[in-house]
Design brief:
Elements: H1 2-9, H2 14-35, H3 113-116, E1 120-122, E2 127-129, H4 137-154, H5 165-177, H6 182-199, H7 203-206, H8 210-213, H9 223-230, H10 236-246, E3 259-262, H11 263-268, H12 273-276, E4 283-286, E5 292-296, H13 299-307
Antiparallel strand pairs: 1-2, 3-5, 4-5
Helix pairs in contact: 1-2, 5-6, 5-10, 6-10
């Protein structure tokens, strides 16, 4: 507008033209200075991992084995994802966040093969071979120790460092009890709380959970098992149940839910309900799909139901 004004008033004047050009140059310079700075970003909160978890599998458990220790690994404070603003004058900042799951230490770790009965990591198959072969108590404890060490090194949906007891208790409830009704999920959570409360949160007690050692329950440990452990999806409902159970001390009555097994496990080893009745009390319920599911606090009932054979006829004391 200023340019048009001076052109009309000073038509034909060289000095007028020069003044117009000078004013235009100053105006453009001020505008560019206002938009040319780099916008400052406030890092957003990291988003949760997408729910790409495999379908749930029937819950299972194993006989508890006794005291043990989990390696102590310092917990680091989670860092906000890095942000790279686009070099566009005066834009709305656009950024991309970096996943917190950047390490897969199970691929590089060595030295556990003999104790776990496995063959170690095989790059050709991208898996740890024969991971599920040896289910002896010492092998299970070593596997629990290594799995916990790996997730502590990598971090997961809980952030960086090691998951604490209630976080892992909620994960175990998710993996073992995801096919149960809510009432039975509360009972399973009572059993988990009882186990860790009475004997400690350690590798020996974690070795009782096949779901933790070998999430997909086969002979190899691979990317699917790792996703189960570190990016399982929405854990909010299981964490809520766990937090409620952990808000009060465990009691001896919670020991009734220490062990659990499904009717399919009994069928697999040729055991019927009549075989476990003489061995002690148990609680029968049903999974969401209607199949039978059992809780007990008696080791012999659990051994018979999951092992069959001589385990159903323990020696008399």
């Amino acid at each position: 507008m200023m340019a048009l004004f001076f052109v009309r008033r000073k038509k034909g004047s060289k000095w007028g033209t020069l003044l117009v050009l000078l004013l235009v140059a100053v105006t453009v310079g001020i505008t560019l200075a206002a938009c040319g700075g780099t916008p400052t970003l406030s890092p957003p909160n990291p988003t949760s991992a997408p729910d790409n978890s495999p379908p749930a599998v029937p819950p299972a458990s194993s006989t508890p084995t006794g005291p043990g220790t989990i390696p102590t690994i310092p917990v680091e404070t989670p860092t906000a994802p890095s942000e790279t603003p686009l070099p566009i004058p005066c834009p709305t900042p656009i950024s991309t966040s970096t996943s917190t799951i950047t390490l897969e230490p199970w691929k590089t770790d060595r030295g556990y093969e003999a104790e776990t009965g496995s063959l170690g990591y095989d790059s050709a198959s991208n898996s740890i071979l024969r991971w599920g072969t040896d289910n002896s108590e010492p092998a299970r404890q070593k596997k629990a120790e290594k799995v916990y060490e790996w997730i502590c090194q990598s971090g997961g949906y809980w952030g960086s460092g090691c998951p604490n007891e209630t976080t892992l208790a909620a994960w175990l409830l998710f993996k073992e009890g995801g096919v149960l009704y809510v009432e039975d999920q509360y009972n399973m959570s009572r059993g988990i709380h009882y186990r860790f409360g009475r004997w400690g949160f350690n590798s020996w007690q974690l070795s009782a959970f096949t779901a933790f050692l070998n999430p997909k329950r086969d002979d190899v440990f691979n990317e699917i098992d790792w996703k189960w452990l570190t990016m399982p999806g929405d854990m909010s409902s299981y964490q809520q149940i766990t937090n409620e159970i952990y808000s009060v001390p465990y009691t001896e009555l919670d020991g009734r839910f220490l062990y659990w097994f499904g009717g399919d496990e009994m069928e697999w080893v040729g055991v019927r309900e009549g075989d476990i009745k003489p061995l002690g009390p148990y609680i029968r319920t049903n999974r969401v799909d209607g199949s039978p599911f059992y809780f007990t606090g008696i080791p012999n009932v659990f051994r018979c139901a999951t092992q069959g054979g001589n385990a159903c006829h323990p020696p008399k004391e």
